[in-house]
Design a protein that fits this description.
The chain is mainly beta. It is built from no helices and 11 strands.
């Protein structure tokens, strides 16, 4: 299993970013996918999750209405569209999957929201 995140960077408050996570090594279209984030000095927290078909999603209360998770099963990729970014969204963002009872993580992508 390999998960490779991309799309992070430095953005001003109110800006937008789209994160991507390219997956390989498993049948992507049959697995639930999630995004987590970890800010300095804080625990890793769930940001959003999406069902295997994409027809069911969940978003943390802190990002609801601003972030949207989606997926393209033809491209084996899950996305996180982040709008109206705030300084408190600054964190390393990870995509993750539970495959054969083990949770796999990507290497993470840094998102910094600052003026």
């Amino acid at each position: 299993v390999q998960l490779v995140e991309s799309g992070g960077g430095l953005v001003q408050p109110g800006g937008s970013l789209r994160l991507s996570c390219a997956a390989s090594g498993f049948t992507f279209s049959t697995y639930y996918m999630s995004w987590y984030r970890q800010a300095p000095g804080k625990e890793r927290e769930l940001v959003a999750g999406i069902s295997s078909t994409g027809d069911s999603t969940v978003h943390a209360g802190s990002v609801k209405g601003r972030f949207t998770i989606s997926r393209d099963n033809a491209k084996n990729t899950v996305y996180l569209q982040m709008n109206s970014l705030k300084p408190e969204d600054t964190a390393v963002y990870y995509c993750t999957v539970v495959y054969r009872s083990r949770r796999y993580w990507g290497q993470g992508t840094q998102v910094t929201v600052s003026s």
